[in-house]
Amino acid sequence: MDALLESLARTVPEAIVCLGLLLVVVLDSAGGAARRAIGPISVLSLLLALVALSRETGAPVASWSGMIASDPLSALLRALILLGTLLVLLSFDLGRSRELKGLGLGEFHALLLAVAFACLLLASANDLVMVYLALEMVSIPSYVLVAYLKRDPRSNEAALKYLLFGAASSGTMLYGLSLVYGIAGTTSIAGVSAAMAGSLPAGSSFGLWLAALLVFAGFGFKVAAVPFHFWCPDAYEGAPTPVAAFLSVVPKTAGFAVMMRFCFEALSLQRGGALALVEIVDWPQLLMWISVATMTLGNVAALTQTNMKRLLAYSSIAHAGYVMMGVVAMSEDGGRGVLVYLFTYVLMNLGAFGVVAAIHASEGSFDLRDYAGLHRRSPLLALAMATFLLSLMGLPPFVGFFGKLYVFGAIIARGPEFYWYAGVGAVNAAVAAFYYFRVMRAMVIDPETGTAPALSLGGREALALCALAALNVLPTLAWGRVDEWTRAAMVLLPR
Amino acid sequence: MSGSLVQHALLLSVALFTLGALGVFMRRNVITIFMCIELMLNAVNLAFVAFSRSLGTFDGQVLVFFVMTVAAAEAAVGLAIVIALHRHRDTLDIDSFNLLKW
Lengths: 495, 102
Description:
The complex is a heterodimer. By secondary structure, chain A is an all-alpha fold. Chain A has a domain at about 280-495. Chain A is built from 21 helices and four strands. Chain A has helices spanning about 1-10, 10-30, 40-55, 70-90, 105-125, 130-145, 155-185, 190-195, 205-225, 230-240, 240-265, 285-300, 310-330, 330-365, 375, 380-395, 400-410, 420-445, 460-470, 475, 480-490; strands at about 60-65, 70, 270, 275. In chain A, strand 3 and strand 4 (about 275) form a beta hairpin. In chain A, helix 4 (about 70-90) packs parallel to helix 14, helix 13 runs antiparallel to helix 14 (about 330-365) and helix 13 runs antiparallel to helix 18. By secondary structure, chain B is mainly α. In chain B, about 80% of the residues lie in helices and about 0% in strands. Chain B has helices at about 1-25, 30-55, 60-90. Chain B has one domain (about 5-95): Orthogonal Bundle (Helix Hairpins), CATH 1.10.287. Classes of the chains: A mainly alpha, B mainly alpha. Chains A and B meet through helix 6, helix 7 and helix 10 of A and helix 1, helix 2 and helix 3 of B.
């Protein structure tokens, strides 16, 4: 009983989100005036969860019989997940959305909270059983969210593709997990790590290689890495814009969380405050090739897109490739790079999707050609979009610059044999700048056809976009604090 | 005796998994693809049970229950999406769902 209460005390944020989710379901079925409380209740539960998370104290421990890791790393990643969900709910004016018109918003909030709850679990999963369960708990409500526009065949088709890819890749991952279990003899990540440090039976090298490859299929699906990315552009295009924005940041953060824990804790040895490779499987090599393919394909495919949602989908694929650089670096600095990148990515990508949603709410179009003359029709939107795009590009003084700085720094610190990898990343960043500038050119330079009237922008949207744009610059002024947070979260204990 | 039993079970699971994965790529009917995914998951279950037996621990067998439950939930959502799609179009051929393209 004591152990149970202790475990519960370490998962208060999860409990709050879960209660909020149940409350939303009850209020939605009550109907009438109660439904108006759904939005505020969702926001409130996320805020309370963030407060509870910030007050969490105590030594790193594995709670819930070793299923959940409560440590500084999971705390920071959970904070990012809560922040991302909160920003999605605050910055998208769901009532004004053309896509969601006539559809109940109660289920929408409930599903969003369900995915957020599952992401919290995935970010602190400490056992292969939990990894699988949390991953599926993220996926299944996500499929429903993508299919939310039930009368729109595109939304249904997107959900079907998402589901087929998701189910196949999670089955593949599960086969990998069964091999890990067979080789290590346990499902706990700490146990797997201990087994790797000991002497493994002869001939398990091939098995572990295969296991790593299969497990990366599951993680790669969650973070939309090549070759498990095919669902991503279709799902983003078919899904309602707030859902696409949400999927591009929150489950991706959780996917990288579990990838980091699996790679750094199960497949690496911690020796004297540094990570050492398990001799029999060279997973950074494998991940490096996935990362190179991911950023290159994402950027090249984004060059020719004219639908803004597809463009942002390919851009998010490319960004996943950069974040993976931090994991390949296999060091404290690399882990810190992943955290910084994910933090900045939440701010810049949600902003970009916010502008796309605002334009769709008044114009009903996702086509880049309809963005012509935006600087005249709505200077605020054009300016906000420019901020987010420059941040995505990775230019200082916007926060996106720091994400790239950290991961590239961590890769270069690994030595000359990784310089070419950093070079590929740099070339990719330049290619990416090309299509981000193309969007800006469409907004400012491209000739307009006819004289379209000024865009109408809701007060809430304007406020949210201004706040997000400010968040893309302001952290630069107090970067020491952000650096301190990530430094505290990514600590390898000397053993 | 038990060792070779486990080996046979693992071989069968690899064969089932391969069949399932091939089916996912080669079949064109959505329902058949779903069945192939179920085949992959059941191959995984077999592998877990076999490893569990050879290791003498129950972790793997417990996981099988979770896998079956999750597979049922996934099938429920999947079939709901298929019904929604079928309302728009009178086919279940995967190649005909081509509204979203490069």
